[in-house]
Amino acid sequence: xxxxxxxxxxxxxxxxxxxxxxxxxxxxxxxxxxxxxxxxxxxxxxxxxxxxxxxxxxxxxxxxxxxxxxxxxxxxxxxxxxxxxxxxxxxxxxxxxxxxxxxxxxxxxxxxxxxxxxxxxxxxxxxxxxxxxxxxxxxxxxxxxxxxxxxxxxxxxxxxxxxxxxxxxxxxxxxxxxxxxxxxxxxxxxxxxxxxxxxxxxxxxxxxxxxxxxxxxxxxxxxxxxxxxxxxxxxxxxxxxxxxxxxxxxxxxxxxxxxxxxxxxxxxxxxxxxxx
Amino acid sequence: xxxxxxxxxxxxxxxxxxxxxxxxxxxxxxxxxxxxxxxxxxxxxxxxxxxxxxxxxxxxxxxxxxxxxxxxxxxxxxxxxxxxxxxxxxxxxxxxxxxxxxxxxxxxxxxxxxxxxxxxxxxxxxxxxxxxxxxxxxxxxxxxxxxxxxxxxxxxxxxxxxxxxxxxxxxxxxxxxxxxxxxxxxxxxxxxxxxxxxxxxxxxxxxxxxxxxxxxxxxxxxxxxxxxxxxxxxxxxxxxxxxxxxxxxxxxxxxxxxxxxxxxxxxxxxxxxxxx
Lengths: 276, 276
Hints:
Two copies of one chain form a homodimer. Chain A is α/β, with parallel strands linked by helices. Chain A has one domain: Aldolase class I (TIM Barrel, Alpha-Beta Barrel), CATH 3.20.20. Chain A has 13 helices and eight strands. In chain A, strands 1-2-3-4-5-6-7-8 form an eight-stranded parallel barrel, surrounded by six helices. In chain A, helix 7 links the parallel strand 4 and strand 5. Chains A and B meet through helix 4, helix 5, strand 3, helix 6 and helix 8 of A and helix 4, helix 5, strand 3, helix 6 and helix 8 of B.
């Protein structure tokens, strides 16, 4: 089976690297005149999948907005993943999970690969409990041909202090040390140029290059395009030589165009072209 | 409505501070001769609730083990929360969630308080995206009479480097700065001595006192008892003057006694007494 990274890069070539974030906020449900319920959520997701057709390489549902409706919301997530797989689109579930031991292994069993409960292609993770604590997820990802995106630099200003704190034993920042450990793992576990562990790096952040230079073998998920203020142009300028491995992600800029299928389709097409 | 902290402290007084972790691992399902499915999970949870009766102040289901079975697993979680509420037991969902903006607000809407989807009494959160990024969860918790436990020092060794990294602008460690921000929030938002934001501090860690001293107004969730190697005695020694606000948590030491309801009941009783 082809690795997640290779499947993404092939699809990005034939479709576009643009990642549609699926963040069905309460405000969005209201703007679409949908009921504030799992049924409303299901209608929104169906409309988005219909509009997307086979245009997108990857989508990124934000788990919190499905968890909001309990098990009924999670059923909608299951259908959403199925609907996008039918369109040949990869699904990256964004839940920033992280824990230790059998718990973190359970997250991998829940989300990653065809034998998991949700059968997603990739997931996001956080490393507050240490990069090493995520090892069971990484191993599972390698075996299942799936991907993991570890948050290295988030797009919000509140994350700066922690992410740029300095490790007491070696002088590197938290973000840089994560980047180095990601690259070390990818070097050991990638068939091609790009390995199974990607990094989340907010497109809104200045001076990302020193950290990006430590991630030569990673896909870089870049949230913060659109509503949060960054443009595709910003991303190309900030990522420079790493822009070819970037996955620019935006949600509201597209979903605000609904519930019209035609307007959604046009906006998806526009974002796909702009991100190429 | 009484705050989560006050409800816990009252129950800890009349029952015990012991927190039963509900971590239904694949190994445990097998050991109980249960099918590896949502049905097996449901049977285990029902047996645990039956055995617990009204002995426990608080339980801590680990979300990953429910997510492993997709929406069917989440239905089991919903029933579990209901079953423990019927027994007057508080439910702390352990998912270490964290994100920004409307996403983190959505986690609060999913889990915290009687108007949420899961109606839990408290949840765990991580601050990799910054303490400030969790503000919507904290505010929601205050309004819903719920609690949030932020991971400050985890029980595993892989987390040490990040959690003891030093903020470049002020010389405090990541863990100490989180502790200070927790206390500042609690001072502004608590009716009594103890505020809505607790801290997760692994009972396995040495030299916790300097950080604990920065958390005078927090409940302290202390995982790592039992299987991970710490004892109730260790906890009392390591927490000293803070032990009265500790919530010692253990899962496997109890659940290994199943599927016998009698043996589970005896072990729960034993742990409740030992943790007093």
